[in-house]
Amino acid sequence: MSATQQYVLLLGIALGTVGVVLSLYGVARSMGRTRREPGKDVPASAGILSRDPVWGRYHARYYGYALLFLAFDMEMAFMYPWAVVYKEVGLVALLDMGVFLAILFLGLLYGWSQGALRRQ
Amino acid sequence: MTVAVVLMALFGSAWLLAVIEGWTTTGRLSLAAPVLSGLAHLGRESIVPRSPDRVFFEAAPVLLLVVAVLGAAVLPLAPDLIIADLGTGALFINAALAYVLVALIMAGWGPDGAYAMIGGWRFLGQLIAYSMLIVMPITAVAMRAESLVNTAIVGSQAGLWNIVYQPLGFVLFFIAAMALAFRAPFDLPIAAGELAGGVDAEYTGVRLAVLRLARLTLVVTLASATTVFFLGGWHGPLLPPWAWSLIKTLAVAMSMLLAGRYLPRIREADLMRWCWTLGIPLALVNIIIVGLLVLVVP
């Protein structure tokens, strides 16, 4: 199979899964409707309806980690192709990536020393 | 044909897992119980909360299921029993599993409920913790196999499984996989005792059935990934290859569920601190050890 065929197949499986779920919804709908009753659609909130939409309320206290995560995630984009040719290129590849990782790791240590690695 | 067999193996494993979990919790072995409770969900009302973000609310369970199925589609059960043996299979599974986060944020944001939303955002913090421990061990696996093709990765373990070659990577990946599947010690977005169900809280009826199925399937997919990357995939004596794949996958999945039963839920702050101050340095050490081994040992 060519790469295109493989991706088309994967797309087909994804669409097929969606189709199965939709038909399940169809079956459920054919078995009965939701009866409309007051108060039934209140979200779980200890019985009291919240005054404002809840959408503005969460403080992402892990943002210190999140910033470091960006650096590490970018690094992984380089590491996959590197890992494939690693054995072929040999020691040079290890040293190259070693320097890169060392800089990144120093960054992690610096962030740690400055208190980035805790819930703010 | 292959597609049908692989999907049957996937959902069959999920069913078997549900049966065994029911057996160990209730003490009754009932083969029909998971199917019956699924059917019962179909007959129940599926309520939409008061002011939902409808697109997110509807998309979340479906997306979670699609992700689990797509992940399983690039993992081999036997040398020729794989739906799509992509040239970048090990990368594709990462990309697919990243959408677990998207699905959970959608499930948290969609219903406009306080508990659900906290659960969703909490999982973003959980991703920041576990994510590096998924990708870095896979990199080390790819270094040994010199390939991102999943069948080649299994092929590279013919002589020695990766669990022996890089045990550190296995431990990190196993823990991170449990966090990804949000199974028990890491079930922060669900958190039955403190968040009233978290992202599960607002889903009822058929939508909840799909969400639960997706969650169970995700466990099987991750157990299968662990098998392929670290437990030598289809390799094993006597039995046919596909049988070994299934046995190992089920064993890994059951050990995940078992570990969850005996460990208390971890706090989010602790999870992040341990992952970043202990997990990531260890994962880097693992990459360096494997790098040296690959160069030194022929």
TrEMBL record, chain A:
Its EC number is 7.1.1.-. It holds the Pfam family Oxidored_q4. Keywords: Membrane, NAD, Quinone, Transmembrane, Transmembrane helix, Transport. InterPro entries: NADH_UbQ/plastoQ_OxRdtase_su3 (IPR000440), NDAH_ubi_oxred_su3_sf (IPR038430). It catalyses: a quinone + NADH + 5 H(+)(in) = a quinol + NAD(+) + 4 H(+)(out). One of its GO terms (molecular function) is NADH dehydrogenase (ubiquinone) activity. The keyword Transport applies. It is an enzyme of class 7 (translocase). It is found in: Cell membrane; Membrane. NDH-1 shuttles electrons from NADH, via FMN and iron-sulfur (Fe-S) centers, to quinones in the respiratory chain. This is NADH-quinone oxidoreductase subunit. It comes from Marinobacter orientalis.
Automatic annotation (TrEMBL), chain B:
It is found in: Cell membrane; Membrane. This is NADH-quinone oxidoreductase subunit H. GO terms for biological process: aerobic respiration. Keywords: Membrane, NAD, Transmembrane, Transmembrane helix. GO terms for molecular function: NADH dehydrogenase activity. It is a multi-pass membrane protein. GO terms for cellular component: plasma membrane. Its main location: membrane. Belongs to the complex I subunit 1 family. InterPro entries: NADH_UbQ_OxRdtase_su1/FPO (IPR001694). The chain crosses the membrane at residues 55-78, 90-111, 123-143, 163-182, 216-236, 242-263, 275-297. The lineage of its organism: Bacteria, Pseudomonadati, Pseudomonadota, Gammaproteobacteria, Pseudomonadales.
